[in-house]
Amino acid sequence: MFLDQKMAKKKKIEQAIVIFLPALFVALLCLISCQSAAYATKHSAETQTFVKTQFAGAQLRIDGVMTLPDGSMYLPLFVEGNVPSTGKPVGIIDRYPRGVADKDVVTFVLDNGLIFVKVVPASEAGVTKTLPDVDKMPPNLNALMLKSRLPQDFIVPDGFAVSVNWKPVLGDLAIPISNSISVPAPAASTSGSGLPAMPAQTIKKVVEPPHKAIANPNGAIFVSSPASGYLCLVDPVTYKKLGEMPVGGTPVCLANYRDSLLVLDQSKARILMLDPATQNKTGVGQIDLVARSAPKSMALVNDKLLYVSESAIAAVCVVDLEQGRILQHTRTVAGPARLAATPNGNTVLVLSPAAGQVSFISTLSHKYLASINVGDNPSFCTISGDSRIAYVSCKSANMIAVVDIAKRALIARIKTGNAPTGMVLSPDQTKLYVALAKDNAISIIDVATRAVVGEIKLPMDVDFPGGIALDASGERMVVTSAATPNIGIIDLAKGEVVAQPEIGRSSDDARFVIPNH
Fold first, then answer.
1. Which of 91-95, 167-171, 231-235, 319-323 has the highest mean pLDDT?
2. For residues 405 and 360, is the Cβ–Cβ distance under 8 A?
3. Which of 336, 371, 374, 437 maximizes the CB count within 10 A of its CB?
4. What is d(CA 370, CA 408) in angstroms, rounded to the nearest whole number?
5. What HEC string does 39-66 produce?
6. Which residues pair with 466 in a beta bridge?
7. CA Rg, the chain, in Å?
8. What is residue 453's predicted lDDT score, i.e. its pLDDT?
9. Residue/partner pairs of 182-186 with CB below 8 Å, 24 or more apart
10. Which residues pair with 110 in a beta bridge?
11. Are 289 and 271 in contact (CB under 8 A)?
């Protein structure tokens, strides 16, 4: 009897094992699979390319951590999980501290939503590695970092701990937290403001290979082509291409200054001052900006001061054109791009596409005043003649943000077609013309009612319109194209495209330069 009971009990145990083991195996498999899906850290192809080109000899570990040949380690912070591939090159929109060599930077903010933060030495019993003091970073960077998360498959190194301020970033990671970690101060910047030192200079002469000057009694429409590094010239009467001239860099923005044409060169970080009558580059004036500051736009104030957005160092540079020197750098929201100055010369508006914000800078003190949210990807801005209202095209939101400049407040939104870009107000201030990049059209908005009242379709030869500009009379408009080798000329009275000159290159910005105007 006892033997039979023992055999029955053994049989039950074997049956339980037969049932339990497969279930356990399936559960473990699911757990591993779920964890792999949730915790797998994989950088996009664009991020991998950026790391290889920006940091010589850098390696990306399986947990997403970047390591450098000198042993430096940068942890990735994700604002919204793994960053998807977009097909667009990745760039730096902010760094901390600013104005120091790359090796001394402890935080890099990329324009795809990824942040790399450096592991720094610590001095506490049993703790040799930590993260920099997040509370000493600029407020906008502090807020951004504390909204992000470390990868949950992060391989925690020996001797690593963080201060309690980093707790929101850790998620479920088992990382020691301490209130007494001593963190070394970051490297000092080259100026007291934490921004690059201001070059003391006058307008210098630069000698470059001469080209054949293009003299034309009608003047010219100057068109910038950043992708090719050329300026193209078109006759404003016949609409025939007059010729082109190499800038030797990346011309991104044009401005009329007295008898000169200002050309902002992004890749060489400089402002060229051309004689539009001869377009002569030999002996032309040049003002050098901070190296690798990636300037993107400029705005002229009172025909004397020039404000230049420097996207790589999150600042706006103030240039005295008469003396040819940089007065100061003003901090702003990360990734400053397009600028616009009020006609009364009191305020400069700064668009930061990645942040979806507009910042305000006083031209009286050159100080940053405030920033407001306006919408996704603010791309262009134009301001009313009375300096009261700013219109900001939000390319990814398909709308125009209407901003009260004095109150620094968003007061209205105007729904548009797809991907609004360049804008300009009619001379009588009654109409707002808006380029719609994806609709290949110019939308006409009634300023009083803020309603769309018309549209001018563009030919396919002028695809993906970007910048638009009016001539001195306000009767003709030039439209640039980011995708095709033509520009468009519109007769506004007729409401139609009257010419589409082929310039042979894609284009970004344009200016009418007419003698005696």
1. 231-235
2. yes
3. 336
4. 8
5. HCCCCCHHHHHHHHHHCCCCEECCCCCE
6. none
7. 28
8. 97
9. 182/122, 182/123, 182/124, 183/120, 183/122, 183/130, 183/131, 183/132, 183/133, 184/120, 184/121, 186/96, 186/97, 186/100, 186/104, 186/106, 186/132
10. 92
11. yes
Contact (Cβ atoms closer than 8 angstroms) between residue 289 and residue 329? no
Contact 89, 46 (CB under 8 A): yes
Q: Which residue has the higher pLDDT, 96 or 115?
A: 115
pLDDT tens digits along 487-507: 999 999 999 999 999 999 999
Residue 4 CA to residue 45 CA, distance in Å, equals: 67
Percentage with pLDDT > 90 across the chain: 50
pLDDT category, 18, cuts 50, 70, 90?
very low
pLDDT in the model for residue 181: 79
- Rounded Cα distance between 289 and 293, Å, is 7
Sign of torsion, CA 93 98 103 108? negative
Q: What is the mean pLDDT of the chain?
A: 84
